[in-house]
């Protein structure tokens, strides 16, 4: 939605919006998850037999951040409020250059702030801001967290 980068959040609620369930050894994704299961469920630990969700805890160096509250529908998308260019081109893989830098340097991270106004079809975040990193060497996945959803 905000480019071909790696997406991060500071609130686990945002991660939970995108997490898909692991139904266990009998589930449809068992073959895809076999390596993860082998590492997590060993030494007497077993899959609980109900939907398990996973999230990574990662260290991310953001570098120079470009902030937006949302993107318009142009191609390539621009910042909705200012009309400023965000991406180099329509593939949305690189952010624009930082104005006034010599030699020219690009932004490394797009910070998509929370926008309270809902407009159907617009590229906006309505809760829990997102960080989109376009520099994979600045990402260090440190932990994988397995969790269950419980209604209270």
UniProtKB/TrEMBL annotation:
Keywords: Kinase, Transferase. One of its GO terms (molecular function) is kinase activity. It comes from the Eukaryota. This is Serine/threonine-protein kinase pats1. The lineage of its organism: Eukaryota, Sar, Alveolata, Dinophyceae, Suessiales.
